[in-house]
Design brief:
The protein is α/β, with parallel strands linked by helices and 521 residues long. It has twelve helices and 22 strands. A hairpin with a 2-residue loop joins β20 and β21.
């Protein structure tokens, strides 16, 4: 699927103006975090004092580059994770709306290029830690292939749950992994380290995890239970019960996975360049922050449990940054901080009432086709080469990470692997960059797709089967960044031709499998 550059030294010399020391790379993917959830954004781009602070994420933004037109690959978590890992738009897979069941086959096949393989084949030590949500394959106990049942089944499933058979991080190019099949939103409510079940405690058992079994009476107070009932769930996800670890405690997950990240950095720093893909489940529901983390009180300090989970995310970032600094590799580590979709504004009692605005200046939130659903905090930080305090208005998207990581690692991708992903390293280094002419991506559970040309954005309503397409909204983001529905131009005679042209162009791109990303070497 790809071949290496003949001369890695030549590549790095061209890319970094003579630098030959390759950076470590850390990609931090947040869950359900919008631009307005980051206090740096509210300080810089909103005329509103932040209700809560995210000092550690702010430091990455202030010390690097913030992309004002940065987007998640979709407005929903599972399909975005496919796009980031593969570098491809979701419609190129057999599961365009994402793989949600832990027992379903993943859309990425063994042998295909991924974030992990391009870093590994460039000589990097590779690690995946956190929320997976790409589907997994467990062998049936009767030997008849892989189990494809319901992951919400409360009974023990007829499969070997002790280890992942294939389709996990190892097959995606990661030397080390600590994976939560669906983060904290389960099922499955368990962890796999290097493809094997990793019990949380010595006396852990595989059981049906439900509201009762997941509640830890030591850490869950009466007020917690009241708040969580207001959100429609308890300590497990609203996705329901399912198989898991008898010691599952949602509030402990951030501590567990961030310690794994620190251990990975400590084990690899200064030995060979490393690539860490860290997928935090914060701030996805259920909102169960720990009482404290690293001596910082969390629970009860902010207007909502949702906001406290963002505070925990900021502390996870601090742990990673502190580990980089402790190993004296921070200056030459390229860190990306992005999110899988826009912020959460519904079923989060106390958040909006406090004046906090997860979507920042934009309409919509997670799952929506509007900017608040997918315009995210998109930060790049690399002290050695990115000047501090920069902003970029370039149109970028999270699956651009694929081509960028490949370029930095020195692994050349085949043309078919760069159809939707472009290398954004030139932007970071202040070099010439070929801009996108257009962008095609999608929303979430309501099945809209979006097509962008310059400031013009067309929203097309589809259905789950993708056999129905209706252009429904047209906006000029230059003059209507809020996508005011009263200024929807789809029915305006003056813009009828533009809407029709954009619709035909999108359908041609999608059905013809055309390239959507410019080539930046």
């Amino acid at each position: 699927m790809y071949i290496k550059w003949i001369s890695l030294f030549a590549l790095m010399a061209a890319a970094f103006a003579g630098a030959v020391e390759r950076p470590n790379i850390v990609v931090i993917l947040a869950d359900d975090v919008g631009s307005g959830d980051i206090s740096y954004y509210r300080n810089q781009f909103m005329d509103q004092k932040p209700v809560m602070e995210t000092p550690n994420i702010d430091a990455l933004a202030a010390g690097g580059m913030w992309f004002t037109d940065g987007h998640s690959s979709t407005a929903l978590c599972a399909p975005t994770r496919y796009a980031i890992m593969s570098g491809k738009n979701n419609y190129r897979s057999f599961a365009p709306w994402g793989v949600w069941n832990s027992f379903h086959e993943g859309a990425i096949k063994k042998g295909e290029a991924t974030l992990g393989t391009v870093a590994r084949d460039g000589g990097y030590a590779t690690g995946f830690i956190g929320k997976w949500h790409l589907g997994l394959n467990f062998k049936r106990l009767d030997g008849k292939g892989y189990y494809r049942g319901n992951d919400k089944d409360p009974k023990p499933v007829p499969a070997d749950m002790m280890q992942v058979a294939y389709g996990g991080p190892a097959d995606m190019g990661f030397d080390y992994s600590y994976a939560l099949p669906t983060g904290v939103q389960g099922p499955l409510y368990m962890a796999y380290e290097n493809e094997k079940w990793a019990p949380f405690e010595k006396d852990s058992e595989m059981i049906c995890v439900n509201e009762e079994t997941a509640v830890d009476p030591v850490t869950v107070t009466a007020q917690d239970k009241k708040d969580l009932k207001l959100e429609g769930n308890m300590t497990i996800s609203d996705k329901g019960p399912g198989m898991g670890d008898s010691k599952w405690d949602t509030s402990k997950i951030p501590d567990i996975i961030s310690r794994k990240a620190v251990n990975f950095i400590n084990a690899n720093a200064n030995k060979k360049p490393f690539f860490l893909y860290y997928c935090s489940p914060e701030a996805h529901r259920p909102h169960m922050p720990p009482a404290e983390m690293d001596g910082v009180k969390v629970r009860g300090t902010l207007p909502s449990r949702h906001m406290e989970c963002i505070k925990v995310l900021d502390l996870e970032v601090k742990r990673i940054v502190d580990a980089l600094k402790a190993n004296d590799v921070f200056e030459n580590t390229l860190v990306f901080f992005v999110a899988d979709n826009g912020g959460l504004t519904w079923k989060v009692p106390g958040t909006m009432e406090s004046g906090h605005r997860p979507s920042g200046n934009y309409r919509g939130a997670k799952s929506a086709p509007h900017e608040g659903g997918h315009r995210i905090p998109f930060i790049a930080h690399w002290p050695k080469y990115i000047k501090a305090g920069q902003t970029s208005d370039e149109l970028v998207i999270t699956h651009d990470l694929m081509a960028t990581v490949a370029r930095v690692a020195g692994t050349k991708l085949a043309d078919e692997d760069t159809l939707d992903s472009t290398n954004i390293l030139p932007i970071l280094l202040g070099q010439d960059f070929k801009q996108r002419d257009y962008l095609a991506w999608q929303s979430g559970a309501t099945f809209q797709v979006m097509y962008r040309e310059g400031p013009w954005k067309l929203i097309i309503q589809s259905n789950h089967k993708l056999d129905q397409w209706d252009p429904v909204e047209l906006y000029n983001l230059e003059t209507n960044a809020m996508e005011d529905p009263k200024k929807n131009l789809i029915g305006h005679p003056e813009y009828k031709a533009r809407a029709e042209k954009m619709y035909k162009k999108y359908m041609k791109i999608r059905t013809g499998g055309e390239r959507t990303a410019p080539i930046n070497l």
